[in-house]
Prior knowledge:
Elements: H1 2-20, E1 28-34, H2 42-50, E2 54-60, E3 66-73
Antiparallel strand pairs: 1-3, 2-3
Amino acid sequence: MKKSIALIITASSLILAGCCTTPHQTKWEYKEVEFPSGTASEDQLNQLGDQGWSVVAATVSTRGIPLFLLKREKQ
């Protein structure tokens, strides 16, 4: 009897917890940045980081210019 009551209380708690929580889906914005001077300086990247941007990928564009793909959580 005690096990049945405990099982019912546990199941009810899990069902209520599932109904009362809303899933949080992070939304991102993306930005492409080229640094025509040849290389990005630490200061330039730190300024972008202070604005909430994170480097996701770095490559070289078809024109031979360093290209960074950045993302941050939408405000």
